Amino acid sequence: MSIQIQTNKRSVNRYSDFKLTMSLAKNGEAYVPTAFMMVFYVDNWDDCAGHYTASCIDGVLTHCEISGTSITVFFDSPRFNLGQLKCRVLDMVEDDSFDDGTLDTCTPIALPVDIVAGAGNTDTVELGYSDVYFGDDNDLMFEGSGVSFGDDNNLEI
């Protein structure tokens, strides 16, 4: 069992548009992948509804923008299930060792955002750098914010 202490937890109504800005780090320094996919979800989602994808593939940004070392995702009619918002960050690095020419590394993250049926308390979530720890289901947890990728795309905690 882990103890989860989260400050400034936000809540967003499941049908509300909102934006989320997050910063990533690699080897202790600010890092924005050149190619990535981020799948946001709440547990028990299916292929028809309940998840939202933002990406940068072949230089084309979808549902997001990059500003400096931050990625802002724009959620437009997301229709999430109720519960804690989570994200899978897929970092796609060119590597000819793989058949598709890409080394894909997936990092699951639990965010300090609850999707609720009632009124939420924000339409903007900003996450910077902070400590990352594992929750009970081995998803990474933001305490305030931050994810750090280590050498060779291994996660640094």
Describe the structure.
This protein is an all-beta fold. The protein has a single domain, classed as Immunoglobulin-like (Sandwich), CATH 2.60.40. It is built from no helices and 14 strands. It has strands at 10-13, 18-26, 29-30, 36-41, 51-57, 60-62, 64-67, 70-75, 83-94, 102-116, 124-127, 132-134, 140-142, 147-149. Strands 1, 4, 5, 6, 9, 10, 12 and 13 form an eight-stranded mixed sheet that branches. The model is unreliable at 1-7 and 129-157 (pLDDT under 50).
- Mass-distribution shape: globular
Quickly name the level 1 CATH class.
Mainly Beta
Between the first and last Cα atoms, what is the distance in angstroms? 18 Å
How many domains, as an integer? 1
Helix percent reads under 10%
Which residues form runs of ≥5 with pLDDT under 50? 1-7, 129-157
Oligomer: single chain
Highlighted features:
disordered N terminus; eight-stranded mixed β-sheet; 14 strands; 0% helix; 52% strand; 157 residues; single chain; disordered C terminus
Mind sketching the topology for me?
Layout: E1 10-13, E2 18-26, E3 29-30, E4 36-41, E5 51-57, E6 60-62, E7 64-67, E8 70-75, E9 83-94, E10 102-116, E11 124-127, E12 132-134, E13 140-142, E14 147-149
Parallel strand pairs: 1-10, 2-11, 2-14, 10-13
Antiparallel strand pairs: 2-3, 2-8, 4-5, 4-9, 5-6, 7-8, 9-10, 12-13
Report a brief summary of the structure:
With 157 residues, the chain is mainly beta. It is built from no helices and 14 strands. The strands form two sheets. Strands 1, 4, 5, 6, 9, 10, 12 and 13 form an eight-stranded mixed β-sheet that branches. Strands 2, 3, 7, 8, 11 and 14 form a six-stranded mixed β-sheet that branches.
